[in-house]
């Protein structure tokens, strides 16, 4: 919505089905709330969100009119319903976050405008996904197909044809063909030839903005019901330690619970056990994170504790071992859905016929509508019947699902998501559990000195919300744990007894590349270091020849250019190579890190993000080997302290010792 109503108070309803009319919005409000028609003014309706002008003078009257109501029912879905009269004390913070979001969005829009070439393509096919969203297949027009080289999967795109402009999202690129997912489109869209441009993901931005807008209401609702009957205690579990069991007990009763989980402290296992216990007490749970890989990790934890999730989101982004739990997989096995799809297929075939008459076209449209309604109903039944829904935060849009109205929402890796993204999930439920570690990967923020640089988890940890901090770590050998514990966690981490076995063959080594020559160099928009690459490849070969399985070795670099250099050599051997972000929440027996930076000026770039380095240094279980240039690193306080630690507790070797059997 380009311009919001400026009156003192507004009633907001969000999650309406496409093509809903203003009259229907008004009728639902009058039927399902205590609001009076005389107090309702102008209605603005756009993209599933209706903002309704409140003409009454008494804000208390408005609060009473919506008391006890968080959603209304329309088209068999729950539509969010709240007003700006509730949570006024939080409105200033909401506006501050909104302002920061707008600044960040403007920066990203300006960056994309510099990349102006278009990809001219002709629409050759239209299909619909399991959420009834259209997917267009477009083929490059002769002579322009090479322009597709700048496109990449999952980026936002703008499709322009004459005066017609549509937002979309790239989902697949195959040769001269591309597939674009559209939020919605008319069945009778006439334009065939379009020009595609990279674009800021406006839909994701709108989702975040609206989540922040509704935050004051849902925060107030949570606090007002803080003393209610939330659940009963459960027995301590033998597979959890004392702090994990404390968190489990608090999850049954608290309105807001924070769980601080440093690396290797069993946070994911705890969340799996917590989810199973909450569901056993009759709760419906939504578990979500910022990334697809972490979301699938949560789903696996639930499965290991005997809970079958329903995974929401784009099926193409889901890992193979979780795909069977995806909503689309459930739908494809459903007999009624198969019937509905056949109805839609027959209808589209009739509509495409050149000889179709007016009556036949009307019947075909009716058949198409019936097929879609059947699909929507079965989709709703599966979602509402699920005890556990799992999704990325960015996917949780009221336009797709309405108000999911869950009992408990769990946000994992909450230190890694923007506060607005966290609210996209939290607004879908009554009680909230945030888990993560502010000392690990932060969210990516385009604007510096912004409130977005502090996650909701970190902000609440500084306030008076209950937080259980896990301390016993199970992943790393003690020698690998000591520096992160000292620098990031005030020496609070304690090695679990099971790590004693790892200590017997553990190794912490730094290989100093100073003087090796070559140094860092540009690779596309990133950096690589071919001297480090060659040394790293030899180190991998040494471990493989010593009997270490390729699946037990991981290679990390903070620079995409170095990752690409290494992938060409190591992927064929079965050794996983990723960026630091790609290894969040993961672990390997042996981890080798290439820091890349090697320059006379001591410029460190990404390496200055110490929280990101905390992730890199805490992925190894038994062996950690780091390659870097001490002449570049040692001028930085963090790396100077780390190098001093290596000399005391680990092995500090020069690359010139390589031939001496290190």
The major beta sheet can be summarized as: 7 strands, parallel
Give the integer mean of the pLDDT values: 89
Radius of gyration: 27 Å
Per DSSP, the total helix count is 20
SS strand fraction: 15-25%
How is the largest sheet built, in terms of strand order?
Answer: 14-15-13-16-17-12-18
Helix content: 25-40%
- Given as residue ranges, the uncertain stretches (5+ residues, pLDDT < 50) are 1-7
Oligomerization: single chain
The gross shape turns out to be globular
User: Structural class, from secondary structure content?
Assistant: alpha/beta
The count of strands amounts to: 28
User: How far apart are the first and last residues' alpha carbons, in Å?
Assistant: 63 Å
Secondary structure elements and pairings:
Elements: E1 10-14, H1 22-32, E2 40-46, E3 49-54, H2 59-65, E4 71-74, E5 77-83, H3 88-113, E6 119-128, E7 134-140, E8 156-161, E9 164-174, E10 177-181, E11 193-198, H4 202-224, H5 242-251, E12 256-260, H6 267-280, E13 285-289, H7 292-304, E14 310-311, H8 327-332, H9 335-352, H10 358-385, E15 388-392, H11 398-401, E16 406-411, H12 419-426, E17 429-436, H13 456-461, E18 467-469, E19 472-473, H14 478-489, E20 494-495, H15 500-503, E21 507-512, E22 521-523, E23 526-528, H16 530-545, E24 553-557, H17 560-570, E25 576-579, E26 588-594, H18 610-617, E27 620-628, H19 630-633, H20 637-649, E28 651-654
Parallel strand pairs: 12-17, 12-18, 13-15, 13-16, 14-15, 16-17, 19-20, 21-27, 21-28, 24-25, 24-26, 26-27
Antiparallel strand pairs: 1-3, 1-5, 2-3, 4-5, 6-7, 6-11, 7-10, 8-9, 8-11, 9-10, 22-23
Helix pairs in contact: 3-4, 4-12, 5-6, 6-7, 9-10
């Amino acid at each position: 919505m380009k311009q919001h109503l400026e009156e003192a108070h507004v009633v907001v309803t969000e999650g309406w089905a496409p093509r809903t009319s203003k009259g229907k919005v008004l009728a639902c409000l009058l039927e399902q709330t205590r609001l009076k028609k005389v107090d309702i003014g102008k209605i603005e309706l756009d993209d599933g969100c209706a903002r309704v002008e409140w003409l009454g003078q008494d804000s208390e009257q408005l609060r009473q009119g919506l008391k006890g109501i968080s959603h209304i029912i329309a088209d068999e879905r729950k539509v969010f319903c709240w007003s700006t009269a509730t949570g006024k004390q939080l409105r200033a913070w909401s506006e501050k976050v909104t302002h920061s979001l707008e600044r960040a969005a403007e920066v990203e829009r300006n960056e994309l405008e510099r990349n102006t070439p278009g990809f001219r393509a002709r629409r050759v096919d239209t299909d619909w996904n399991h959420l009834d969203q259209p997917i267009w297949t477009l083929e490059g027009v002769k002579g322009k197909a090479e322009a597709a080289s700048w496109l990449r999967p999952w980026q936002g795109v703008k499709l322009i044809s004459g005066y017609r402009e549509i937002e979309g999202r790239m989902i697949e690129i195959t040769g001269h063909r591309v597939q674009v997912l559209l939020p919605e489109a008319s069945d009778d869209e006439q334009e065939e030839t379009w020009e595609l441009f990279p674009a800021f993901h406006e839909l994701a931005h709108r989702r975040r903005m609206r989540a922040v807008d509704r935050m004051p209401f849902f925060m107030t609702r949570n606090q007002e019901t803080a003393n209610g009957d939330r659940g009963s205690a459960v027995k301590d579990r033998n597979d959890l330690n004392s702090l994990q069991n404390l968190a489990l007990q608090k999850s049954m009763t608290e309105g807001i619970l924070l769980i601080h989980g440093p690396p290797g402290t069993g946070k994911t296992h705890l969340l799996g056990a917590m989810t199973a216990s909450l569901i056993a007490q009759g709760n419906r749970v939504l578990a979500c994170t910022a990334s697809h890989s972490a979301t699938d990790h949560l789903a696996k934890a639930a499965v290991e504790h005997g809970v079958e999730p329903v995974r929401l989101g784009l099926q193409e982004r889901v890992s193979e071992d979780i795909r069977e739990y995806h909503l689309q997989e459930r739908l494809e096995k459903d007999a009624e859905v198969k019937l509905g799809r056949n109805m839609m297929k027959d209808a589209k075939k009739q509509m495409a016929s050149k000889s179709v008459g007016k009556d036949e076209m009307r019947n075909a449209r009716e058949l198409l509508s019936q097929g879609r309604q059947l699909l929507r109903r079965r989709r709703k039944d599966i979602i509402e019947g699920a005890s556990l829904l799992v999704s990325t935060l960015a996917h949780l849009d009221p336009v797709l699902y309405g108000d999911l109205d869950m009992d408990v929402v769990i946000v994992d890796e909450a230190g890694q998501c923007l506060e607005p993204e966290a609210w996209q999930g939290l607004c879908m439920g009554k009680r909230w559990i945030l888990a993560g570690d502010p000392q690990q990967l932060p969210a990516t923020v385009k604007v510096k000195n912004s409130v977005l640089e502090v996650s909701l988890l970190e902000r609440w940890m500084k306030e008076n919300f209950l937080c259980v901090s896990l301390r016993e770590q199970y992943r790393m050998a003690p020698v690998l744990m000591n520096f992160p514990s000292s620098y990031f966690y005030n020496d609070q981490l304690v090695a679990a007894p099971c790590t004693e076995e790892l200590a017997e063959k553990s190794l912490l080594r730094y290989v100093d590349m100073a003087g090796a020559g070559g140094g860092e160099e540009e690779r596309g928009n990133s950096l690589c270091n071919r001297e480090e690459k060659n040394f790293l490849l030899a180190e991998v070969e040494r471990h493989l020849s010593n009997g270490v399985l390729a699946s037990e070795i991981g290679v990390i670099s903070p620079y995409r250019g170095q990752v690409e250099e290494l992938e060409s050599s190591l992927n064929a051997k079965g050794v996983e190579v990723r960026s630091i972000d790609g290894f969040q929440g993961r672990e390997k027996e042996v981890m080798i890190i290439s820091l890349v930076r090697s320059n006379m000026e001591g410029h460190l770039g990404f390496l200055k993000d110490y929280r990101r380095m905390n992730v890199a240094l805490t992925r190894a279980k038994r062996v950690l080997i780091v390659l870097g240039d001490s002449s570049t690193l040692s001028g930085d306080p963090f790396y100077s302290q780390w190098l001093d630690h290596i000399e005391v507790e680990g092995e500090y070797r020069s690359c010139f010792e390589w031939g001496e059997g290190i």
